[in-house]
């Protein structure tokens, strides 16, 4: 799943063709991310040192890409159909009319890859795992996706925006999966003024970490929080109180890729359930958090093509 979502991000956001470069980027990116959570000891053999080296290789490759793109644009060699985020970042000007530095473009690039591919891969993995364990939910998802197939046939075989809008139950399952196991546990906020919350004084300048399970598993907000129940999301008018359902965060810094993640998840699940069935190879494989939730052994499955 990580490879699929990485490839999608690289193709759609950055216009990279399939091939060795994407594979090398994914390898170095995976090593770099491991360093984020490692003890910062920078000498040969440590996870941190390997991560630093991988990041340097990544930056070199991204720098070549950015320069090549800039050269093509300067020479007028780019088809506007090929527009991607690198072009947008190259075109950006600050309040003084200055372009972004190459390092800034590379940082945005890395942040976007980080924000987009692991999170969606986790949601998809949890989805695959759940469908193999919950026959009732699984048959409803398959039923909905078979309806989508019928609509596609009438539409000349194309999967368009209107078919995506038909995938309501499938998305509710995704929402419930993210309630129980949010891919991102939470995020940091800087306290900008002294406040008192629930009897605790929190001084200005502190970094605080909000956590999604704090509200996702609160019985006063989500009745029977341990129960897996996609119907909680059936009635959008019966919305939950603000800032309580927060797999994508909330407020001004809410996830910028919610719709991207929704469409990507629904498309992949559509192709999976209409073309394959599967069984887990390791029964009762647990979910571990390091710190993102992932099946402990990577969820090996046996895939069976459908006729
Ligand atoms: C299931 C998939 C995803 C989940 C669960 C998720 C979750 C989150 C969360 C919790 C935040 C932090 C919000 C906050 O601090 O309040 C965030 C931020 C962000 N996400 Fe996502 N995300 C997903 C997919 C994506 C995708 C596909 C993209 C890009 C295509 C993306 C781009 C971003 C960006 C750019 C930010 C930073 C927004 C900002 O600070 O202004 N995310 N995401």
From TrEMBL:
Listed GO CC annotations: membrane
UniProt organism field: Gossypium schwendimanii
Gene Ontology molecular functions: heme binding; iron ion binding; monooxygenase activity; oxidoreductase activity, acting on paired donors, with incorporation or reduction of molecular oxygen
Keyword Transmembrane appears in the UniProt entry: yes
Annotated localization: Membrane
Keywords attached to this entry: Heme, Iron, Membrane, Metal-binding, Monooxygenase, Oxidoreductase, Transmembrane, Transmembrane helix
GO biological process, one term: sterol metabolic process
Highest taxon in the source lineage: Eukaryota
SUPFAM superfamilies in alphabetical order: Cytochrome P450
InterPro entries: Cyt_P450, Cyt_P450_CS, Cyt_P450_E_grp-I, Cyt_P450_sf
Name under which the protein is recorded: Cytochrome P450
Membrane topology: Single-pass membrane protein
Similarity comment: family membership: Belongs to the cytochrome P450 family.
Residues that bind heme: 255
Cofactor: heme
């Amino acid at each position: 799943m990580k490879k699929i979502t990485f490839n999608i991000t690289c193709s759609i956001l950055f216009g990279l063709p399939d091939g060795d470069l994407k594979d090398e980027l994914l390898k170095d990116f995976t090593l770099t991310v491991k360093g984020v959570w490692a003890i910062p000891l920078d000498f040969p053999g440590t996870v941190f040192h390997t991560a630093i080296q991988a990041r340097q290789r990544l930056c070199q490759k991204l720098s070549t890409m950015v320069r090549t793109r800039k050269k093509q644009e300067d020479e007028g060699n780019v088809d506007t159909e090929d527009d991607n985020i690198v072009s947008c970042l190259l075109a950006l000007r600050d309040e003084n009319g200055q372009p972004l530095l190459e390092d800034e473009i590379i940082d945005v690039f890395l942040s976007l890859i980080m924000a987009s591919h692991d999170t969606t891969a986790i949601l998809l993995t949890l989805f695959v795992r759940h469908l193999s364990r919950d026959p009732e939910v699984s048959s409803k998802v398959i039923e909905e996706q078979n309806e989508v197939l019928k609509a596609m046939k009438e539409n000349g075989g194309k999967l368009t925006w209107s078919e995506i809008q038909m995938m309501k139950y499938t998305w509710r399952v995704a929402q419930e999966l993210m309630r129980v196991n949010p891919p991102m546990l939470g995020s940091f906020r800087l306290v900008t003024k002294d406040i008192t919350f629930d009897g605790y004084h929190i001084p200005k300048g502190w970094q605080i970490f909000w956590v999604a399970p704090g509200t996702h598993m609160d019985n006063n907000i989500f009745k029977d929080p341990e129960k897996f129940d996609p119907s909680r999301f059936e009635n959008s008018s019966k919305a939950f109180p603000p800032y309580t359902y927060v797999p994508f965060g909330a407020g001004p810094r809410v996830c910028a890729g919610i719709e991207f993640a929704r469409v990507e998840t629904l498309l992949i699940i559509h192709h999976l359930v209409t073309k394959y069935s599967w069984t887990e190879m390791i029964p009762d494989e647990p979910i571990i958090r390091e710190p993102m939730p992932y099946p402990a052994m990577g969820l090996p499955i046996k895939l069976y093509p459908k006729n």
